[in-house]
């Protein structure tokens, strides 16, 4: 039974990593599609979300199977339950990437607008957070997970800055309200994405140490 | 204590000896006892018969009979009893009052004597309460019986134990046989122990371990065989190790990343290129980790999966989102021990392809521009009115001439560049003085600097280098012309050449317009221009610095640039100094510089 259990756990980890990899790729490409108005890439991100959702269902099924068959305890239990929650957050990250890609489809021909640089930086920060959170998960590394929590502030600052910048732009006469709204909503999606990455990192800390750090920082 | 092989052999060998000996001694003892008892029986019986005959001489009175019995009894050391036919005792050597004795007619020996004349019986005497030997004989002519009884206990006591010294002999023989067996076994065991020790050393990795067998018995032959086997093993291991070292050197030296994973997707090998392609840096203990812990790219994992599931080889070209971002060609093949993954970084190749395409289109473009001007001028000159015009006519001829020179300069540079790129080994290796070359270049450009209103100063020290004079001259020319061209009227160009730590260091400082930071890395690319309009009007081909970089590289040197916008730039060329001093006068043979003035 132990061997079966270990094999199932490995398969579970692998599936989470594949799902994480798909999310990383979706976020990177979604943000890039928005920045350079690449409709083909945006459509690819939207089409790819089905795979992420299918993986979520599969992982949930695996988790339930492991809970029912092996009744894991202590660290194993935390690990399995943590995966259950991480999967949920990853699926939301994938959805947000789709939302960004949809905004990219709406950005026809509007190149070189102020605020894109900040958006790019936010995108980079989000990808970095997602990457670090997944690394922290696969290595079960508490320190790395804690770094993710710190990175979240950076994204919040960038959102505030973008908000201020776009408000000023829209208030001025040369303001392009439609473009500004696209940027603002995308920035908001990125900020939410960062929150989900934070959740993943918190779940990793819970898995490793059994500490609940949610709502404490 | 553990019984060794020798101890066991000794015991095994001596056990039958001891057992046999003991059996023999016991059997002997029993037979001796038996014979003794039988002879006792017989002698007592004979005494009884004699006594019976003595009694037959009677008739004696009861008193006489009693006295006789006591006398005989004490003489022969036995109890003598005379029993009548009805069983009453009439005389007894040890019981004076025979009336107290009960009837002896039913005693087995008495019954036997009545029936056969004599009888011998060993039985327990109730009277004396011990084991006695009884012999009875019928007195001839009467129905009286004379019975003798003798106490056997002392004799039996003596016969009960084994032969005296039996235990000493048994122990002695046993010990001796054990010792001898041990001695023999030790002789067998010592070489075996040596063999064991050597085998353990080999097991621990000391393949040079040997045994030194004596004699030519079976164990010695085993020892020789062991030595041969170890020799062969060492050879095999050395060959395998060399093979492995060679393989790993090959794998490490490859540009392609190679990763081997086992069926559980655990990494069993990964080379340096794979580390750098996947951006793993110096992350420790990679072998043993699962591939998905390091690479999350779903397409790479998918390729491994499909290769592992036996669908043969799998290929894909993947834009790896990173880090680091790159275009990867991934090839996975199933092998008995898992899956081998070969990663090829295609981004460099793509960049090179792009550069080549760019170069071709740049060259075409650069050649087309002067050609178009020439074509236009020729077409205009076909008009007689223009050709005859004293002002317009020469103007168009000059235009043709100017563009022809430009074409010439371009082709000259392209050829120079292609020569430098394609056949570096044909570059002559002469010992020359770089200082002479730079000095001549400076002198020839002095007039041009004066026309541009730029102060040119050249200070050189002797710097012998190995290389080609014409190529180095082109380096100096291109750097100086560039500096003069991009320095506004009133500025200065300062050229110094001096030996420094084994390098000839040529520094060209100008007080010109400078180079923006973002362009600094790219100015050595072919046809790259910071300011396109200005550069072309200044007569540059866009290849000058590319030629400088290539030429310096072929001489084993480096070129770098420092610049501040609106303050000036400094180009520094370093070429390794030759070991021997250059003979003077070789500097003058530098090829003519390309015509760059418009």
β-strand percent of chain A reads under 5%
Number of helices of chain A: 6
Query: What does the radius of gyration of chain A come to?
Result: 19 Å
What is the rounded distance between the termini of chain A? 40 Å
Strand order of the largest sheet of chain B: 2-1-5-4-3
Spans of at least 5 consecutive residues with low confidence of chain B: 582-598
The proportion of strand residues of chain B reads 15-25%
Question: What can you see in these coordinates?
Answer:
- The complex is a heterodimer of chains A (217) and B (598).
- Chain A is mainly α.
- Helix content of chain A is 86%, strand content 0%.
- Chain A is built from 6 helices and no strands.
- Chain A has helices at 2-36, 39-70, 74-106, 116-139, 142-171, 177-209.
- Chain A is elongated.
- The model of chain A has no long low-confidence stretch (mean pLDDT 87).
- By secondary structure, chain B is of the alpha+beta class.
- In chain B, the strands form 4 sheets. Chain B has a 5-stranded antiparallel sheet. Chain B has a 5-stranded antiparallel sheet with strand order 7-6-10-9-8.
- Chain B is 52% helix and 19% strand.
- Chain B has 17 helices and 17 strands.
- Residues 582-598 of chain B have low confidence and may be disordered.
- In chain B, helix 5 packs parallel to helix 6.
- Chains A and B meet through helix 1 and helix 4 of A and loops of B.
